[in-house]
Design a protein that fits this description.
- The complex is a heterodimer of chains A (110) and B (113).
- With 110 residues, chain A is mainly beta.
- Chain A is 0% helix and 59% strand.
- Chain A is built from no helices and 11 strands.
- Chain A has strands at residues 4-7, 10-14, 19-25, 32-38, 45-51, 56-59, 62-67, 72-77, 86-94, 97-100, 104-109.
- In chain A, strands 2, 4, 5, 9, 10 and 11 form a 6-stranded mixed beta sheet that branches.
- Chain A is globular, with a radius of gyration of 13 Å.
- The termini of chain A are far apart.
- The relative contact order of chain A is 0.34.
- Chain B is an all-beta fold and 113 residues long.
- Chain B is built from no helices and 11 strands.
- Chain B has strands at 4-7, 10-13, 19-25, 31-37, 43-49, 56-57, 65-67, 73-78, 87-94, 103-104, 108-112.
- In chain B, strands 2, 4, 5, 6, 9, 10 and 11 form a 7-stranded mixed beta sheet that branches. In chain B, strands 1-3-8-7 form a 4-stranded antiparallel beta sheet, with no helix packed on it.
- Chain B is globular, with a radius of gyration of 13 Å.
- The termini of chain B are far apart.
- The chains are: A mainly beta (110), B mainly beta (113).
- At the A-B interface, strand 5, strand 9 and strand 10 of A face strand 5 and strand 10 of B.
Chain lengths: 110, 113
């Protein structure tokens, strides 16, 4: 099955700086890559996603890049704010099943 | 529009007891999923369904059973609960294609003593 690795496991950034989370996947047939944000005690919520026919996608301060050849994708958060503090999960999908990374705990220091 | 609703939100069981977790969605989604979330391990797929009357095993199916008798409901059963099944359980659903976002419920926090 699909194996998704996510790094780093924890990330601490100064408010206003950028944060980058990287994921790799094993199955070259995977074609959908969502990112979820999960606040403590809450449900995972989709923040951005990218499909395999696109190399980059941006939504305000959040961007995702995909390198199909290298089988890795990354989440970039610019101008971080305290409300960006959460656990972020990457995932990869072939057909309809998602395989998740282990998560990155992001802490934004004021 | 409620989206995905899970009941109960919390439950404490004794080893060997049984229980059923209910997931209901009102978005007319074909696909439904049950995950468990443990610290440091992300979300792992237990079972899933691609339509009414269908179920299939995911990554960690042992000790669980599921049923999808109605399109809007997906039930997760624990026949004989074990302490290793202490976890937070999330239900999710999405539409007809694989590249549609999965919508998650609020989760069920289950403790097995």
């Amino acid at each position: 099955g699909e194996n998704v690795e996510q790094h780093p496991s924890t990330l601490s950034v100064q408010e206003g700086d950028s944060a980058v989370i990287k994921c790799t996947y094993s199955d070259s047939a995977s074609n959908y890559f969502p990112w979820y944000k999960q606040e403590l005690g809450k449900r995972p919520q989709l923040i951005i996603d990218i499909r395999s026919n696109v190399g980059e996608k941006k939504d305000q301060r959040i961007a995702v890049t995909l390198n199909k050849t290298a089988k890795h994708f990354s989440l970039h958060i610019t101008e971080t704010q305290p409300e960006d503090s959460a656990v972020y999960f990457c995932a990869a999908s072939k057909n309809y099943k998602l395989s998740f990374g282990a998560g990155t705990t992001v802490t934004v220091r004021a | 529009n409620a989206g995905v609703t899970q009941t109960p939100k919390f439950r404490v069981l004794k080893t060997g007891q049984s229980m059923t977790l209910l997931c209901a969605q009102d978005m007319n989604h074909e696909y439904m999923y049950w995950y468990r979330q443990d610290p440091g391990m992300g979300l792992r797929l237990i079972h899933y369904s691609v339509g009414e009357g269908t179920t299939a095993k995911g990554e960690v199916p042992d000790g669980y059973n599921v049923s999808r008798l109605k399109k809007q409901n997906f039930l997760l059963g624990l026949e004989s609960a074990a302490p290793s099944q202490t976890s937070v359980y999330f239900c999710a659903s999405n539409g007809m294609t694989g590249s549609q976002p999965q919508h998650f419920g609020d989760g069920t926090r289950l403790s097995i003593l």
